[in-house]
Write the structure tokens for this entry.
Amino acid sequence: MLRYALKRLLSLILSLAVASLVIFAVIEVAPGDPASFMLGVNAQPDTLAALRAELGLDVSKPQRYLAWVGGMLTGDFGTSYTYRTPVSDMIADRLWVSLPLSLYALTLSTAIAFPAGIYAAARRGKPGDVAVMGATQLGVAVPNFWFAMMLVLIFAINLRWFNAGGFAGWEGGLWTGLHSLTLPAIALALPQAAILARVMRSALLDILGEDFMRTARAKGLSRRQALWRHGVRNALIPVLTIIGLQFSFLLAGSIIIEQVFYLPGLGRLVFQAISSRDLIVVESVVMLLVFAVITVNFLVDLAYAAVDPRLRSRT
Amino acid sequence: MSRNLILGACLSSLVVLAALISFAWTPYDHAALNIPDKLQTPGVQHWFGTDHFGRDMFSMIMVGARTSIAVALVAVGIGMALGVPLGLTAAARKGSWLDELIMRGNDLVFAFPSLVIAILITAVFGAGAINAIIAIGIFNIPVFARITRGAALSLWEREFILAARVAGKGAARISTEHILPNVANLLIVQGTIQFSLGILAEAGLSYVGLGAQPPTPSWGRMLADAQTMVSFAPHLALIPGFAIILTVLGLNLMGDGLRDWLDPRIRVARA
Amino acid sequence: MSLLQIHNLSLAIHDTEVLKEVSLTIEPGQIVAVTGESGSGKSMTALAVMQLLPGGARTSGSITLDGQEVLELAEPQMCALRGASVGMVFQEPMTALNPVRTIGDQVMETILIHKAMPRVQAEERAREVLTRVGLPPDRFPLGRYPHELSGGQRQRVVIAMAIALRPKLLIADEPTTALDVTTQAQILDLLKGLVTEYGVGLLMITHDLAVVADLADRIVVMRYGEVVETGPTRRLLTDMKHPYTKMLFEASDHQVNLPPTPDPAPLLTVDKVVRDYRLARTRLFAKPGHARAVDHVSFTLNRGERLGLVGESGCGKSTLTRAILGLEEAQSGQILLDGQPVFTGHRPNPDVRRKMQVVFQDPFGSFNPRHRVDRLITEPFHLLDTPPKGAERRDRVAEMLTAVGLSPDDARKYIHEFSGGQRQRIAIARALIIRPELILFDEAVSALDVSVRAQILDLLAELCEAYDLTYLFISHDLSVVRTITDRVLVMQAGRIVEQGVTGQVFDSPQHAYTKALITAAPRLPDLGRGVA
């Protein structure tokens, strides 16, 4: 078990290292010098040089890369070109919106998908299954940002149960914060839940055809007992993979959804940064997103081992 | 053929047809502004109504289909053209450093969702349809590489591949002559699915302004324009939304139907 | 009153008739064997008793278990019956257990699901039955997972689950088919012991007539869903009434006459061949271990000789086969065919390759489903410098198809249009088409029904006459090797432990392992022979 975890951890660190190199290299390709962009065309050469030194642009590329990575490891993401404030502060504020939103959506999507998938698998071919599968087929086809607009139209504009946009902040308490994230979370979660429910169903159906399910029935378990006691845990193995992948879609999706609801999250930060060519902010946010995706997949690998004893003993 | 396949094929061909016809004919010029006629609801004159500049929504949807299909199709093409050979190579050299390199590379690309790739590209090179294609295409590569490798690996264990090796055939020849034809069905099905995901991704990127730029019409940007007017002109949001949903639904149904139809086990049973 | 009485049981799945008026009875303490070839409906009979039939099944007739009519029971009552009154053992021990739950958990589940006793006692009972089936908890703790056990051990766990509540009837569906002969003998002994000890009735489903003759009190022979003959074992063996029964017993012990071998002249020389596999590291920085699959194997195969290679699974015979075929390089030692090495400079030698062909076990996986038969069997032409084309190619295909008993018209068909036996004929045609000096038969008849197997063995004998074949016949089936080879090698744990003239090795084995193997293999008594 420990060997397995260490091996995955090693691969996590390696992936992060390569990812940071790729991101750094892409940003380096960008034409133009941030310092002259910030000061405009009429900048004095010596002011320019001073600013370049302040931004750490006056050293060689490998040195800049090491400074960037080293800074991130100590929580220093550099200084925003446009706002002249530490990037880490800007990100930290926004993270308090984006991260809870993604987790909220992931929880919702799992909470909807598991029962729906199990229900459909247990009633394979019957009206209940057909209805669930039809709904998921539709759910997969709906773009989440359009769905978000429809939610706003119905629940915010017509019914007035929620605000059409904006974030109330966590200062007013957990409930206020969650309330203003509810519509965005639903918009993110439902299309993902549709995918997850389909995966859950087909994983369960595969397992229903396994020999050990017949063994369980021969012991005297009813169809339902066999499904719950022997099917669900085995089906978790493929389902976990999809949950891991979904997290990256949810993070990316939350960037788009934030636009619909005018949420002050990472998405808005990154779009502002793009339009003002604040590349250090773009670079850091992208690295953070990639870090989150890789870390979640590392956790999924650990979860595999918890579910599947075969992985654990393969030390 | 199943009902799914027929329904899906009909829906998808409808959209493709609309895109093709738009090259020759649209009810109105999709870019022509006509402020007096703005924000009309769907009716006889403008089947899908008009937007806030009085442009004909039906014409815009037809031309927008072009953008969606082109972006998604080229992105699937990139994914297949690079992913399939990578997957075949990885499977043929299973367990070697090359296999390891390809698979780790795949994992790495999976860590960059296509939106993140698009953000990076846009930040550096500016927004545009080409960047959307590249972003979605790059993300498609590991999808095809992984599915090809998985299917090819189980084929390499089959005795008919051993027989081909005993007949002196090399890995490249076996991959093209025996492996590729036997994974083709799977690739067609996955291609359909990735095509539909590409349409969704393109819409999303255009919505946040990272995709096709004006004046190229795109369903995603039509939705972005509609957002502020949704309370008093809901058809501006409903119509492009339905266009996306029906296209994606059609492609998914077609993918599911194809999977059942092309499954060799089922076909043998029928023969 | 009988323990189990099946009377005029008919079964249709959707619109296909699977069973037609099957009748049989089992008394307590009796072993009844149902036998027949694939498609005979023997497994469906067992599943009908358990009421675990696939969807769309309709049954008529009656199945009475201990006076209770099974076909009239509702599903909840059936659940109460399964596991408690009837236990079942399946064919595939590797997949019959849930991989993510411990063996103790799975054995206890049988007890707990029927609420037969509280948890503490259930655990005690689980220990007890696991000990009874030969897995004492001090050596095999209840916390073990299935993947930590061998195939034979897993089958013992399945049996423990089936007998945990001391059912009156035990159903075993091909319980030893997936196991090696020595393991098979142990499992059969275990089942026999349970019958005498607990007085349970055993319904044994098997295609292996030698097992049937050895074990059963009564035999039921089935074909196409019907019972063709039934009777007490001894009587049935000595006095078979139905021609199908006679044919089946004859085919199970089919003998062929091979032409005499020419004077010894070496064709294939295997000299001190070693093949290691790297094992996964056990600790993080430990040096990875090696498993030696083939350990200094040396032997010679003479031109015109038919050599057998026998051994149980994992003995290294597949690895050795791959090394000879040039699919994997040996780490040390040398393999020479006609004086030339199979590998030269880490690459397979094409000159050797074209002198060698192979026939595999699986008649379904051996062919690319997308190619026609003519393309399939001419694939080895790739090895020739000037492969025949046009009319010559057509003639060669026609000649080969005729030689293996098919029609030249079959050349344009796809592989799914043929039965398993026909496919194996096509595989032989593919191996013969370039007239190789040596053919390897890798378990080539193991997946076939006995009657089809007998036909393929006849075909091999004919081809030996017509084409002076030299072959290496790799098999786990001793009875087949005995008739189809001149000389035999016995392999155990990567080594050749004994070799010699086939008849001599089988009649007076010298090595302890060969002795164990031959004793463990169930044999048909001589009673049945000569009747057909």
